[in-house]
Amino acid sequence: MSGQFGFGVERDAVFGFLSLIFWLLIFVVSIKYLTFVMRADNAGEGGILTLMSLAGRNTSARTTSMLVIMGLIGGSFFYGEVVITPAISVMSAIEGLEIVAPQLDTWIVPLSIIVLTLLFMIQKHGTAMVGKLFAPIMLTWFLILAGLGLRSIIANPEVLHALNPMWAVHFFLEYKTVSFIALGAVVLSITGVEALYADMGHFGKFPIRLAWFTVVLPSLTLNYFGQGALLLKNPEAIKNPFFLLAPDWALIPLLIIAALATVIASQAVISGVFSLTRQAVRLGYLSPMRIIHTSEMESGQIYIPFVNWMLYVAVVIVIVSFEHSSNLAAAYGIAVTGTMVLTSILSTTVARQNWHWNKYFVALILIAFLCVDIPLFTANLDKLLSGGWLPLSLGTVMFIVMTTWKSERFRLLRADA
């Protein structure tokens, strides 16, 4: 904390930072997305283009146009962010191995490309097959997270005071500007949430909710609080609190499983971009392309060869250009937090227009969402010049492609008529 945000490893700072992370996980992921936004689906599919389609069904032409623009911007942002996630995940995993093998520094780029090549090659086998391959690894990973965190919490249970949301409030009042900057970092704990919603067609609402509430949320909470407990006991651990949670003998196995887990985390965004692309094709915003159904049971489990390999090429270019995950860190977050703002507006529109919820209740929900989303987005704007331009540039290209295809297709249809 001290090196990045400008405050020392003080008790109040640790409690405030932990409280902020925990309540973001509760409010943004658990309440907003898994409880509210996931209610909005189109034949089981999620994603911001699904929200756009649902929101525009019962509105005026002018309002529908505005909703379409917001949906396309959000979808374009997702395309921009999806290029960064596999790159930063894989590179950070390979770089983690430098702790035990410093000579790997010159091999970060080629090793990252090799791992990514394998990851993209197995996509054609479908989510079910990939899930069977990866699920045991991820379950092991989350159990390790929980175990390491619990071990540290037992040694210093005082850290559990941070469960009180007033510590997050105190954090903002005490540290003011620095706490706002810290939002740009804590947002990394929730950046996968848009991919989670976009993946709903692949995995289903119930499995996602079940996994989150029974495994992922408890494990993340225990590990974050375990790191906090370690910092209270040993401020020197600020250098790398996660790996220092483990005993020395467990370091190498932990590095290996961490490397595997971060690579697997890329799977969510790859599946999400397949779903988003199919929705864009159905709505007429992208050219028809070959879509392969990889499951006889789940219609949402698909593979799109063209998108898979275009994404692969884009990710490889990013890896070769940036070389280290630290160079990409500044690019991470700005696009997905922008999409979160648009998701709040579109999902509450669906609640009012499609579900016919009370307008005052819906307004309160929207205000609550935006009170969190907008600070997260603005806190990431300072990343614009240092790397945030990358996902925004990629998103702009996708926005132009989608709107141009739609308008030209409409013009040709009118000409034929």
UniProtKB/TrEMBL annotation:
Keywords: Membrane, Transmembrane, Transmembrane helix. GO terms for cellular component: membrane. This is Potassium uptake protein. It comes from the Bacteria. InterPro entries: K+_transporter, K_trans_N. It holds the Pfam family K_trans. The gene is kup_2. It comes from Escherichia coli. Coiled coil: none annotated. The chain crosses the membrane at residues 13-34, 67-94, 106-122, 134-155, 175-198, 210-232, 252-281, 302-322, 328-348, 360-378, 384-405. Residues 5-414 form the K+ potassium transporter integral membrane domain. Belongs to the HAK/KUP transporter (TC 2.A.72) family. The keyword Signal does not apply.
